[in-house]
């Protein structure tokens, strides 16, 4: 049985939850990791689900072992983050999405789902494009912040797609931000666009993102092993947006 286990109490008024599951370019994970680190967000809970690997993760210079899918809070900024160090496989995705969505509803959060759209752009000067999708009243949020609608018909797959689907079923107001990203390697530049164009204005917070580009090589090295595991996983286990033309 899936459940969210809250480890400490926290008090938020009208929070935004940023979802950082691994996917194409690891764009959501890189962005969410950046938030957790920059704001020194407090570890407040974990997601326990039968289909998730029963592993313990630990950080550099830290004795503490923790579950692979964790929740963090920043009371000052009214912010929540879902941080994952492993992919959520297709067996667990539906139960995982239902569990997380029920918890998001209970705490009164507006979920912000992050996904990459595989893009083979070779021009180093190219700025990744960003667009949004919505559930409930989320379209008004996207319009308010000038985030474009999708340029063509498509689908968001993997566990992030399951979360968006569950939000729609529950009539929960949610927003999905999709960015063009490298389909093979960790893409900090695309994560910067997610933050600058989506997370920062919607959550109404100021986030320094220049280091994502300045330290791009270091970030890629840190995330490379996870990126390789994501490539080896099936498409059903990797959160990504795709054009519907890929299914024709």
From TrEMBL:
Residues 227-248 have a biased composition (Low complexity). Gene3D superfamilies: PAC-like subunit. Pfam families: PAC2. Residues 220-248 are annotated as: Disordered. InterPro entries: Proteasome_assmbl_chaperone_2 (IPR019151), PSMG2_sf (IPR038389). This is 3-isopropylmalate dehydratase.
């Amino acid at each position: 049985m899936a459940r969210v286990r809250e480890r400490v109490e926290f008090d938020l008024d009208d929070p935004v939850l940023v979802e950082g599951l691994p996917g194409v370019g690891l764009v959501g994970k890189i962005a969410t990791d950046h938030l957790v680190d920059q704001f020194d967000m407090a570890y407040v809970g974990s997601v326990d689900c039968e289909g998730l690997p029963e592993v313990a993760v630990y950080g550099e210079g830290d004795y503490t072992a923790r579950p692979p899918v964790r929740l963090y809070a920043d009371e000052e900024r009214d912010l929540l983050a879902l941080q994952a160090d492993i992919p959520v496989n297709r067996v667990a995705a539906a139960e995982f999405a239902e569990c997380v969505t029920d918890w998001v509803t209970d705490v009164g959060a507006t979920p912000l789902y992050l996904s990459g759209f595989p893009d083979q752009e070779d021009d180093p000067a190219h700025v990744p494009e960003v667009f949004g999708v919505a559930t409930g009243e989320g379209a008004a949020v996207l319009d308010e912040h000038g985030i474009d609608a999708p340029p063509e018909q498509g689908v968001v797959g993997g566990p992030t797609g399951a979360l968006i689907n569950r939000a729609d079923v529950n009539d929960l107001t949610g927003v999905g931000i999709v960015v063009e990203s490298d389909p093979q390697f960790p893409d900090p530049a695309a994560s910067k666009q997610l933050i600058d164009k989506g997370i920062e204005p919607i959550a109404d917070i100021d986030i320094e993102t220049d280091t994502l580009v300045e330290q791009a090589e270091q970030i890629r090295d840190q995330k490379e092993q996870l990126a390789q595991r994501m490539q080896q996983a099936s498409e059903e286990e990797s959160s990504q947006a795709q054009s519907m033309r890929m299914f024709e």
